[in-house]
Amino acid sequence: MLLNGIVLGTLTTFGMWLIYRKLPGKVREWLERHNLITDFAMFLGVYWLYGGTLTALFAAAVSGIQVSAYLEVKNHPDDYLWVYAGVAKVDEQLSGVKKWFRNINESYKKKIEAQSKEAA
After folding, report:
1. How many CB atoms lie within 10 A of CB 94?
2. Average of per-residue pLDDT across 44-72
């Protein structure tokens, strides 16, 4: 139950973060400025979404903690430069994987083009 809540809360936070990134800039700025409202709304939303069970309570708590941490880093970037350095390091390490996926995509495109030329 506790592990389920942790996993559920983490996945929900990730999903909400993906939605958050697609919001207009003014909405994101408002959510960042009013972090207590954002945190409370996230907690209640997750708790309600998962049916008000004990697992939902754990998921909402985990999600609330993660949203609070994200908003803290976002609102005070000078205090958390090590987070930004870590993200840059991970992005640098993943550049090889990105190139690998790009190569796979290009070879697949060439294969599709060759098949369409043969069919015509």
Report:
1. 11
2. 91
